[in-house]
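Quick one - first record:
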Amino acid sequence: MILPVTLRDLVPGDAPSIQRIYSGKSVAFTTGKPITIEEAAAKISSWGRCAFGITVHGDLIGVVKIHSRTESTGSISYILREDSWGRGYATDAVRQITDFAFNSVGLERLEAKHHPDNPASGRVLVKAGFAPTGRQDDFLTYSRQKEA
């Protein structure tokens, strides 16, 4: 089954959707508190070219980002609005950003991490081809190499 997930650039007008994404249970393993509309607008302007909105049928339901670590290594992060959990959207978005990182950005390795109390995030990473690598700063860590 092909999921209707699309990644797109974020624009200033997305601030209300970003505020909604960064609220409720979705922030339990990040800051733990919802953001304001001003903070949402600031996030959008600070993220740069490797942050994308995750949309389903035109509805902005999440964000997925690549953070550069070295010239050849990056890390990914993602967050979904809680009413979008459990439908495979995060897995599809992580697969798409991974392809982008390897084929357009030119990275050779990607890393990711999640809080141990959020096992669903680990399942997303494994389904997207990441392998567990251990623990760092109370987070479970994963990585994926570009295939030759």
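second record:
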Amino acid sequence: MPRPSPPPLTCLPLGEQPQRRLPQLFIGLALYGFSLSLMVRASLGVNPWSVLYEGLEHRTSLSFGTISAVLGALVLLLWIPLKQPPTFGTVANIVVLAYSSDLGLSLLPQHLGLPARAGLLVGGVLLNGLSVAVYVGARFGPGPRDGLMTGASTATGRSLRLIRTVVELTVLALGWLLGGTVGVGTVLYALAVGPLTQFFLPWFAYRSGAGRAAGAAAPEGGSGRGASARSAPHGRLRSRILKACSDGPPA
């Protein structure tokens, strides 16, 4: 069975097919939060923002999920001077990730052997790539951290790649200084999550009526825009996701 063509990622109104899109959004965010808890319990390194959450967890009495929610809300405040409007998906990202990551950490055992931890790490990275495709594919808008990068890129005129690199390296360094776990998992996440998300996204992206009609009209051979998107380097995927709502809903 051939893979579907790469989907559009622009943000859609909340009222469009909510019975179809809302469950996908919440399932994707819940899986994303659980994937973070898998990587934390692996203790082999996590993604940059989770390194910061871990570091703050060591320094405060707050839980991992609570810290992610607090930082998500603080990051959201930075959207105001950047004139980046939040969406329903932005708020859902903060709330669902906090509860699902804390639930996962409460269910998963600690101090496992290396083989089990390696399995948790690989499973966490795979689930993370899948979950990003699921919740981004619902097209409710970016989370607070991605929206910060989108807004900063628009406000400064710098590329999304540069803004993302600066932000995530800063977050990673700060989290490491606070005692967060940096290791092979951090590298594996950085290398694998983009290709994984790109692989899964065509199956999970919701298509509006206009989008389905355009897809049906595309040549089966995959020529044109769809083919060029498939052959683009996977690093462009992150830029597409970050820019998903920067131009507003489609006309």
